[in-house]
Every structure is written in structure tokens, then in C-alpha cells.
Amino acid sequence: MLILTRKPGESLYIGDDVKVTIVEIKGNQIRVGIDAPADLRIYREEIYKQILEENKSAAEAVMSGSALEQLSGTWKGVGREDSQSGSREKGSRTTGLSSLSRQPQPQVFMKRKKRSRFDEDEEDGKKVPPETEGEQES
Amino acid sequence: MSDESAEKQELITFASTRFGELQVPAESVIEFPSGVIGFSHTTQYVMLEHKHPFSWLHSVQDANLAFVVVDGFEFGQQFDVKPPIGNKDTDMREDDEYAILIIVTVRSDPRLTTANLKAPLFVNMRNRRGVQVIFDDPRYSTRFPLWSEDSQKNAEQATTEQAPAGQKSEDGSK
After folding, report:
1. Which chain B residue shows the shortest CA-CA distance from A113?
2. CB-side exposure of A2: number of CA atoms within 13 Å?
3. pLDDT at site A102
4. Which pLDDT tens digit goes with each residue over B81-94?
5. Angle, CA A96 vertex, CA B67 and CA B138 arms, to 5°
6. Which residues pair with A93 in a beta bridge?
């Protein structure tokens, strides 16, 4: 690992396009500024790992589980009415995923269950649940 | 909308451990040049319809690999993520039409199923290329519960007890 010493306000370049600046040092925290091309993905390590783990959980759960068969039809979205009725800003975000998906449909059938609470309520501050970091068992 | 042309009828066949052998039009393939994070070994996927609102995003190259996804629109206006304009994988431009797919993690108790709002997949409809984008934003959880705990209870109760018609609660306190 290359190790360099910098003072606040000083920068370094990674290649031609990426400039990293030490903005400020405050106690044990260092603020870093990064100038980089828009398509370069830059993440804090812990966030990146969190996504990695969640993607893996999602893929594994699908492999092992038939649980999904109980899912469909019971979840109606969150505060969907407002967004669905009329395009929000003549935007370019499309809703019908049907144009993405194709036959053949997997032959998985499931029965309808109760409606979710999201039918009535808009979500009520439940949006950011306490996150259990790390692994969960299946 | 560039490719309404010749090889429209071309079909590709691929294996799925879940669904067996599948055949889809070649044009339905969605390309993720960088893969889904953690799965860079496979870049081609197809969407298979499940029962609404869920779909499968199934790898063409890895028979084991599939994600359950749901349309980002299902999360309403509070889920207000911006497309990655300028992203090279998708060649995303200001005026492109795009879809947002949210990966769902199905739990063994399906009602504990969560959605990863922090890292949606964007698919550019113009070229059917996609990318997973991480939003480092505390409003968006990687494990947003689709069903809350109350709704679980309600669902169970509702199936077991048909509310007796004449029964009254006797407290006037509330």
C-alpha cells in the first residue's frame, strides 16, 4: 500500500481524473473531498460491504426458499397511489416493468393472502428500521 | 428505440436450477456490464414475470443466480432516487426512460421479507443496460420490511377468527 502524508488543503491525484483532497481534520475524523468522473463509483467501505452482503443474502434466499410463493398479491406497495396516478414530473422513469420482462413465465402459483397494511396507510416512519448488521440466518 | 430489427425472433436458451430450461427472445436480455455488486461473473439477465408485483431477475449465465425484484415505483414518492446520469455502463442520459428494480430478500418467514432500497438497479430502457447504484442516504435501508409486524398479526388473526358480530368492547376509556 502506498502511504502518503498530506496536510489539510493538500491534494493528490489518482490517475488523470481523480483528485483527492484532505479538506479538514477534526479530532479523529478526516474529511476527504473527491473530484472524479461522474460514472466512477465511490462508496464508503462499510456501505459497499453492506450492499454486497445484502445482494448475497437475496440470491441465497431465492435459491433455498419457496417462501416467495406465499408473497405475491399481498403487498401493495408503499404510498403508491400518489406516484402512480399521473407521471410525477413528466419524468422518464417508467413504471411498467412489463416491457422488461418476457415469457415464459415461471409456473409458480400462490394464493392470495391478507392485504398488507400499506393498503391503508402510507408508511409511518417505519422506513428506516434498526438495521441488524451482519449476517442473518436463513 | 433502436433495435426493432432483424433478429427479433432469435431465441436463447438457458438453464435455471429453479425453473429448468428456459427460452426467451434474445432481445429480452438485460445487460449489466459491471454485474450486480458481488456477482460480477454474470452480466446478462432476463426478467421473468412472477405474480404482481414481484418479478425474477434471472441470470442467463448462472443457472443458480436469480433475484426477486419489485418495481421501484411501488415505494412511492418518498423513494426519490435519481438516475445515474453519465453512467457508462448504461449510457444514461437526461432524457432516457429507465426502470428501477428493487432487490428483495425473501426470508424463511416470507413476511419478514425486506427490500433493498439503498441499492436499486437502474435499467436504461433505450439500450436495456443496467447498473446497481448505492445511495449512501440514511433514509434508504438495505432491509426495508415489506410487511410490518402489525400486519403479520392482523393477517394471522383475520384468518383464524371471524370477528363475532355482536361482540362489544366494554371499556369506554379511549
Report:
1. B155
2. 5
3. 45
4. 999 998 899 999 99
5. 60
6. B98
* Cross-chain Cβ contact B125/A129 below 8 Å: no
Unique residue bearing C-alpha cell 406516484: A83
| 3-class state of residue B126 by DSSP | coil
Check if B96 contacts A (Cβ < 8 Å): yes
Query: Residues B23-30: what's their mean pLDDT?
Result: 88
Q: Of A56 and B51, which is predicted with more confidence?
A: A56
Q: A101 and chain B: CB distance < 8 Å anywhere?
A: yes
Q: Given the cut 0.85, state whether the ipTM is greater than it.
A: no
Set of cell numbers at residue A8: 489539510
* Alpha-carbon span A87 to B53, nearest angstrom: 19
**Are residues B131 and B90 in contact, defined by beta-carbon separation less than 8 angstroms?**
yes
* Number of Cβ pairs < 8 A linking chain A and chain B: 244
* Secondary structure of residue A99 in the 3-state scheme: helix
Cβ-based neighbours of A59, under 8 Å, separated by 6 or more? B39, B64, B65, B66, B67
- B-chain residues near A62 (CB < 8 A): 18, 66-68, 106
How distant is the Cα of B67 from the closest Cα of chain A, in angstroms?
A: 6
Residues of A within 8 A of B50 (CB-CB) are 68, 72, 105-106, 108
Cα A23 to Cα A7: distance, rounded to the nearest angstrom: 9
CA dihedral B23, B44, B132, A100 (to 10 degrees): -30
Q: What is the pLDDT of residue B111?
A: 78
Q: How far off is chain A from B126, nearest CA to CA, in Å?
A: 11
**CB within 8 Å of A4: residues ≥ 6 apart:** A12
Question: pLDDT at position A88, please?
Answer: 35
Quick one: residue B110, left, alpha or beta (phi over 0 = left, psi -120 to 50 = alpha)? Answer: alpha
